[in-house]
């Protein structure tokens, strides 16, 4: 859900595949000074800590020469790990980006000096493309495995034939010339001897000449390599599996991202003050491109707000940031997390979000939910009271029975009662779960009566109560 | 793979054809000369579909033959490495089997036949699975993957494999007849 597993994926992939990539051309001599292996890993790692970043800034942060960085980034672009965007912009246009960076608040970008001196330059931006990275890494692994396996199984190799008499070698492409009308074997063109397929020879002559040994060694090597690959890339594959079902973090295009980040910043500052950069950008930076994202800024607030805090991003990031989260969707999601977390904590959190997201519908819904919650609390209390009473009654009844039948065995009474208590405890948990279900999907779990989805209908509670009590009777009977 | 391409050829025409139907004669001769031939570059010429243009003829000194540069559209067939193709088995022997996909000869060696198929010699030599459910013999139709080609100036020879998913017999002549 959050970007974190994906970052881990990127880091693992970087170390696995881009460890010893040098961006120098082959014609240049590789002296110790120009050896820049490992730079790829550093750049990728740096990118995992950023979203969209101007390449100059990145170069400055990494203390790299911008040319060197650009060469690395171009390599990654070809490898489809990174998306890049180039645009001509004025000083003001650059400000939009700066504002956006400030909004993401990762603290890595110090304010740049000399913004205003920039006249009209082409600036390049880059960003990790997580969804593509996932596919690229998977494809790469697949190809590696397939290649090794094919070689191991001799799948696509051309069969070779040897004449045992004169040692002449043929391969399967010569087959048409070699086939003889008399029998079903291939015959040597020069001495008419019967040809032997080479791997057969390997099988028959266990300790053959050096050539055969080389062949076998090669096979062993391949097998070894495959095994090594399996175990060395296991962390990467595990991470791929972990990431498989998660929603991929999307930053969108550079422009969309800027608009969003600015909007987030504006909202964080309480809709005041920081509106200028984005306004100025509309005229200059974007060249009058229509921006379909303006209308949605309100909703994005909750999303980036949470991300900013560095909390584990919960449900909001699960949906791609472009989409509006409709109130009903938010509600369902909340309940889902409630299942996972404690109820009390959840309540607090729910209030928190409802205060940040000022959609009127949302409030109504949370109000409704509070109602439900109260009712449920009451229900739980009532249930426990009833349970206690019932239990006491039964205990007394049991005692009476015991007394009647046999006064001697008092131990057994103790036993049964204690047993019952254990049973009751587990029962209680069941009930809790039942309650959770009720609020989770608004349809009643005990709702066999066909009630509509109104949870605050007392009938449902009664039903549930009855059901539970029935259960108890059945267990003890 | 089939391609529809435009090729050019210099046709020599005997003076006796010079008349009203010179053009028809030229086309007929072109078809006779070209169709069914193989060039290493373009593959087998399957059929001529049309004449693009006939250039100016040039009378040869001495013989009286006239050379016309003719551009024609034709369908060519050229096998590629990695291509999946369907072929008819023409011969089965211990070393594997030969099959034909149109004009192309394909050899599938016994190493590239699935391990569970074994060679059965006899009246009709064939490759059969242990349970006898799949049988490759003469006139069987197989789907195979071309894994190597030898392209000479005048012929193309391929080797194929049926040791992969979805490859092998696609219809058994014994089962249908």
UniProtKB/TrEMBL annotation, chain A:
<dbReference type="InterPro" id="IPR013083">
    <property type="entry name" value="Znf_RING/FYVE/PHD"/>
</dbReference>
<comment type="similarity">
    <text>Belongs to the TFIIE alpha subunit family.</text>
</comment>
<dbReference type="InterPro" id="IPR036390">
    <property type="entry name" value="WH_DNA-bd_sf"/>
</dbReference>
<dbReference type="InterPro" id="IPR024550">
    <property type="entry name" value="TFIIEa/SarR/Rpc3_HTH_dom"/>
</dbReference>
<dbReference type="InterPro" id="IPR002853">
    <property type="entry name" value="TFIIE_asu"/>
</dbReference>
<feature type="compositionally biased region" description="Polar residues">
    <location>
        <begin position="271"/>
        <end position="283"/>
    </location>
</feature>
<dbReference type="Pfam" id="PF02002">
    <property type="entry name" value="TFIIE_alpha"/>
</dbReference>
<feature type="domain" description="HTH TFE/IIEalpha-type">
    <location>
        <begin position="6"/>
        <end position="138"/>
    </location>
</feature>
<keyword id="KW-0805">Transcription regulation</keyword>
<feature type="region of interest" description="Disordered">
    <location>
        <begin position="267"/>
        <end position="290"/>
    </location>
</feature>
<keyword id="KW-0804">Transcription</keyword>
<feature type="region of interest" description="Disordered">
    <location>
        <begin position="399"/>
        <end position="477"/>
    </location>
</feature>
<feature type="compositionally biased region" description="Polar residues">
    <location>
        <begin position="405"/>
        <end position="420"/>
    </location>
</feature>
<dbReference type="InterPro" id="IPR039997">
    <property type="entry name" value="TFE"/>
</dbReference>
<feature type="compositionally biased region" description="Acidic residues">
    <location>
        <begin position="464"/>
        <end position="477"/>
    </location>
</feature>
<dbReference type="InterPro" id="IPR017919">
    <property type="entry name" value="TFIIE/TFIIEa_HTH"/>
</dbReference>
<feature type="compositionally biased region" description="Acidic residues">
    <location>
        <begin position="431"/>
        <end position="442"/>
    </location>
</feature>
<protein>
    <recommendedName>
        <fullName>HTH TFE/IIEalpha-type domain-containing protein</fullName>
    </recommendedName>
</protein>
TrEMBL record, chain B:
<dbReference type="InterPro" id="IPR036898">
    <property type="entry name" value="RNA_pol_Rpb7-like_N_sf"/>
</dbReference>
<comment type="function">
    <text>DNA-dependent RNA polymerase which catalyzes the transcription of DNA into RNA using the four ribonucleoside triphosphates as substrates.</text>
</comment>
<protein>
    <recommendedName>
        <fullName>DNA-directed RNA polymerase subunit</fullName>
    </recommendedName>
</protein>
<dbReference type="Pfam" id="PF03876">
    <property type="entry name" value="SHS2_Rpb7-N"/>
</dbReference>
<dbReference type="InterPro" id="IPR012340">
    <property type="entry name" value="NA-bd_OB-fold"/>
</dbReference>
<feature type="domain" description="RNA polymerase Rpb7-like N-terminal">
    <location>
        <begin position="8"/>
        <end position="64"/>
    </location>
</feature>
<dbReference type="Pfam" id="PF00575">
    <property type="entry name" value="S1"/>
</dbReference>
<feature type="domain" description="S1 motif">
    <location>
        <begin position="79"/>
        <end position="156"/>
    </location>
</feature>
<keyword id="KW-0240">DNA-directed RNA polymerase</keyword>
<dbReference type="InterPro" id="IPR005576">
    <property type="entry name" value="Rpb7-like_N"/>
</dbReference>
<dbReference type="InterPro" id="IPR003029">
    <property type="entry name" value="S1_domain"/>
</dbReference>
<dbReference type="GO" id="GO:0006352">
    <property type="term" value="P:DNA-templated transcription initiation"/>
</dbReference>
<keyword id="KW-0539">Nucleus</keyword>
<dbReference type="GO" id="GO:0055029">
    <property type="term" value="C:nuclear DNA-directed RNA polymerase complex"/>
</dbReference>
<dbReference type="InterPro" id="IPR045113">
    <property type="entry name" value="Rpb7-like"/>
</dbReference>
<keyword id="KW-0804">Transcription</keyword>
<comment type="similarity">
    <text>Belongs to the eukaryotic RPB7/RPC8 RNA polymerase subunit family.</text>
</comment>
């Amino acid at each position: 859900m959050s970007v974190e597993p994906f970052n881990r994926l990127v880091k693992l992939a970087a170390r696995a595949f881009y460890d010893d990539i040098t961006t120098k051309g082959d014609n240049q001599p590789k002296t110790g000074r120009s050896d820049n292996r490992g730079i790829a890993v550093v750049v990728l790692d740096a990118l995992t800590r950023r979203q969209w970043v101007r390449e100059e800034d990145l170069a400055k942060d990494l203390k790299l020469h911008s040319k060197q960085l650009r060469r690395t980034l171009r390599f990654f672009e070809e490898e489809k790990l990174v998306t890049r965007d180039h645009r001509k912009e004025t000083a003001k246009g650059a400000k939009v980006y700066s504002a956006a960076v400030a909004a993401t608040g990762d603290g890595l970008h110090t304010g740049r000096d000399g913004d205003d001196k920039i006249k009209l330059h082409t600036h390049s931006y880059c960003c990790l493309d997580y969804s593509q990275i996932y596919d690229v890494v998977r494809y790469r692994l697949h190809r590696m495995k397939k290649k090794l396996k094919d070689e191991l199984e001799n799948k696509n190799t051309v069969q070779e034939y040897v004449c045992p008499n004169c040692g002449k070698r043929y391969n399967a492409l010569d087959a048409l010339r070699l086939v003889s009308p008399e029998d079903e074997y291939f015959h040597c063109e020069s001495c008419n001897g019967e040809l032997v397929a080479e791997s057969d020879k390997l099988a028959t002559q266990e300790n053959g000449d050096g050539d055969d040994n080389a062949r076998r060694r090669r096979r062993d090597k391949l097998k070894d390599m495959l095994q090594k690959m399996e175990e060395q890339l296991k962390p990467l594959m595990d991470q791929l599996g972990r990431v498989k079902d998660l929603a991929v973090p999307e930053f969108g295009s550079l422009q969309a991202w800027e608009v969003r980040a600015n909007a987030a910043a504006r909202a964080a500052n309480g809709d005041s003050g920081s509106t200028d950069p984005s306004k100025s950008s509309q005229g200059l930076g974007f060249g009058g491109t229509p921006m379909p994202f303006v209308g949605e800024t309100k909703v994005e607030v909750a999303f980036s707000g949470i991300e900013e805090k560095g909390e584990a991003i919960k449900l909001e990031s699960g949906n791609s940031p472009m989409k509006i989260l409709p109130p009903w969707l938010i509600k369902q999601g909340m309940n889902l997390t409630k299942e996972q977390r404690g109820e009390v904590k959840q309540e607090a959190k729910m209030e928190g979000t409802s205060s940040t997201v000022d959609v009127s519908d949302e409030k109504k819904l949370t109000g409704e939910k509070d109602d439900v919650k109260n009712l449920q609390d009451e229900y739980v209390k009532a249930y426990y009271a009833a349970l206690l009473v019932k239990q006491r009654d039964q205990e007394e009844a049991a005692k009476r029975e015991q007394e009647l039948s046999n006064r001697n065995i008092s131990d057994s009474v103790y036993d049964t009662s204690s047993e019952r208590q254990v049973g009751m405890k587990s029962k209680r948990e069941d009930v809790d779960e039942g309650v959770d279900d009720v609020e989770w999907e608004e349809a009643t779990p005990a709702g066999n009566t066909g009630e509509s989805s109104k949870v605050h209908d007392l009938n449902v509670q009664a039903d549930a109560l009855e059901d539970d009590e029935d259960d108890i009777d059945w267990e003890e009977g | 793979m089939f391609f529809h391409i435009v090729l050019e050829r210099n046709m020599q025409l005997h003076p006796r054809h010079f008349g009203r139907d010179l053009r028809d004669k030229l086309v007929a001769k072109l078809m006779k000369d070209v169709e069914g031939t193989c060039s290493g570059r373009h593959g087998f010429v399957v059929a001529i579909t049309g004449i693009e243009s006939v250039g100016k003829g040039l009378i040869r000194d001495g013989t009286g033959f006239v050379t016309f540069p003719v551009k024609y559209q034709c369908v060519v067939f050229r096998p590629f490495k990695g291509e999946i193709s369907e072929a008819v088995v023409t011969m089965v022997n211990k070393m594997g089997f030969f099959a034909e996909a149109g004009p192309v000869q394909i050899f599938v060696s016994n190493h590239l036949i699935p391990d569970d198929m074994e060679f059965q010699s006899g009246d009709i030599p064939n490759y059969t699975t242990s349970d006898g459910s799949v049988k490759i013999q003469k006139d069987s139709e197989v789907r195979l993957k071309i894994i190597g080609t030898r392209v000479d100036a005048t012929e193309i020879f391929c080797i194929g494999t049926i040791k992969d998913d979805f490859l092998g017999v696609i219809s058994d002549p014994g089962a249908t007849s």
